[in-house]
Amino acid sequence: MSDASQTIYPDHYGQDEEGLAPPKKRTEEMLLNMGPQHPATHGVLRIVLDLEGETIVKATPHLGYLHRGVEKLCENSTYSQIIPLTDRLDYVCSMANNYAYVRAVEKLLSVKAPIRAEYIRTIVAEMQRIAGHLFWLGTQALDIGAMTVFFYTFREREVLLDLFERLCGARLTMSYYRIGGIDRDLTEDIVLDLRLFLSSFPDKVREYNTLLETNRIWIKRTRDIAVISAKDAINFGLTGPTLRGSGVNYDVRKAEPYGVYDQVTWEVPLGKNGDTYDRYWIRIEEMIQSVRIITQCLDRLPAGPIAADLPNITYPPRDKVMNDMESLIHHFMIATRGFDVPVGEIYCATEAPKGELGFYIVSQGGNKPYRCRIRAPSFIHMGAFDHMSRGYMISDIVTIFGSYDIVMGECDR
Amino acid sequence: MHPLAQAVQEACPDAVLAVSEALGELTLSIAREAVRPVCQALYARFDFDHITDVTAVDLTHEVPRFEVVYHFYSISKNQRIRIKTRVPEDDASIDSICDLWKGANFLERETYDMMGIQFNGHPDLRRILMTEDYDEGFPLRKDFPVEGRGWRDRFDFPISPAQEGGS
Predict the structure, then answer these.
(1) What's chain A's average pLDDT?
(2) What's the ipTM?
(3) A219, containing H or E segment
């Protein structure tokens, strides 16, 4: 740590021109306000930094600028009406949020989606993971000053978003998952284009890797920055790549397999040092693993229905709704009145691109949840922010919260 | 009974009020005073090193009114546990567990912000999502209206002279 009294202010600081005031040095700590409007905060985040020279002594995050009361709204919406609300949590990975919510409700109802739906869910969730990690990679490099990667990753992300658009009609707020199934089936031409993407994607990842690994500045700004030990990472409740960067082998997809993750072969990449570079490497590897998962799922994709045969819960098929009066009424009833869920409570965790996204739902019967608690990884990661930023330089601050893959929509809910 | 529940009961006698297993999840209902001893035992003796969540539920028509819910996870044993305890409305406070799990800091702050439950011994118990000077109550309590409270439910914005005379 540098001595602030020696380096920052010259000796004549505070002296007027005639030299009457005695020369003085300023040695107190400086408070610096960062945000809420700051291009690198990925939303609206305010941080108050206590600085000693350029070194961070304490960082106090002030959250809540994007608080929309989603948990309160959930208590006043039927179970299906909550799906579009979950889109707006982590708005760059809405499929992952849909999946987490839908799984929690299905567990509470003790229903299962048909096997084809489970396959498609897994495929789409992994597509979303790739899109989410691409978004992270591009913006993280951009924040640090390596601009080129941003254009490359967004080019590939665009391909995936186009596929999502063809699949469900939306690019960001997808609301694709349904309780007991999914909204629409994968068509032949989407599968064809997805395979085309998958065949070329590993080469693209190598391309990003070359762009960054040969960038000395980027390496210097990520290696040994924001180091967190495995013990601390667990103690703070970190999850996802942020936890695995410290070498802790915890992935919900392996620990409590859901979807068809236990039927395909893939590995959990683990870091060693727990620094920003390791977290980068993990996300890069996860994209490759996602390609493996999707390819195997596509190869084995079984035929069958895409929604469970539960007339109380799942919507009737779309073409019937458009042409058949009874089906239209049926659809209307589920959409407006919803369905009753038995009394009970559930905590269901899902591995979202950012970490463990959990829904704790308390039902007292009826068509609305009594309490819907969202355990958002970004919020919990922000809890470790002060610990991880102390002792680093002010220019590292963007790297540190960038390395969480933070999205404020999810953090503030 | 679940072996883990049995072990916790032996480690902290009189602390566990009820044990339930539903939907594959283990839930222990404990006395409010026993939160710290039980959490200490879970942390130190039963390897629950990962804090998943701290939250509260407002059971309006029951006495005591609030239920504080903890979720812990053991990475080495791949086991989850839920701890529940009741807190009355007139003395909505409970011991903090921040010194055991540092991650509890933000979670307890959020529970305080949303439900108004005091955590004794918390190092920095301030509002976290709402502004620090917010004084219209605790938004996730059931008696708080969805539309909000205060100026938000009135919309008595001053009308500008142009609007008054025109159209």
Answers:
(1) 87
(2) 0.86
(3) helix A216-222
